[in-house]
């Protein structure tokens, strides 16, 4: 299965207040799973920054671990554990996205390559059927965006993390930008 590739450039400034600003990324080490065709996204408001993954990797149990970064101890949330088992010594994640959960906790999410900023049109967002989410261990995702690409390339399929309904998303994004 061929993994999707992200655009090489960040999107332009958000001229349309109706779009939803997201940080889009791919997960490492899922190339041989059914999830290889998907990208993932977090709302810009939730993301603090992306950093190079330090050499001292978190020891994970069921996809959760801890890491010390300077003066802070962060929870590491490794989504890959939902789809495949990853041993710490075989982890090829290069970056950590540092983000805040809806409860306000500061966490890190290991990712494959540097993330990109993409403005999503709410018209590209659709619900993921509950039955599909349950079978594929995607209980943490309720929506996805199908983003057309140029030059006949397959559309990007982006699973949206920590996002509500498209109407709520658009309202939240617009209020954040103003």
What does this molecule look like?
The protein has 178 residues and is mainly beta. Helices cover 10% and strands 35% of the residues. The protein is built from 2 helices and 11 strands, in the order E-E-E-E-E-E-E-E-E-H-E-E-H. Strands 8-1-2-11-10-9 form a 6-stranded mixed sheet. Strand 10 and strand 11 form a beta hairpin.
Short description:
The chain has 178 residues and is mostly beta strands.
Note the main attributes of this structure.
mainly beta; 2 helices; 10% helix; 35% strand; disordered C terminus
Give the H and E element order: EEEEEEEEEHEEH
The chain-level structural class is mainly beta
* Mean pLDDT figure: 79
The end-to-end span amounts to 41 Å
Low-confidence sequence ranges: 6-13, 165-178
Radius of gyration: 16 Å
Within the largest sheet, what's the order of strands? 8-1-2-11-10-9
What topology emerges from the helices and strands here?
Blueprint: E1 20-25, E2 38-43, E3 47-52, E4 64-69, E5 72-77, E6 95-100, E7 106-111, E8 116-120, E9 125-127, H1 130-135, E10 141-147, E11 156-161, H2 166-177
Parallel strand pairs: 2-11, 5-7
Antiparallel strand pairs: 1-2, 1-8, 3-6, 4-5, 6-7, 9-10, 10-11
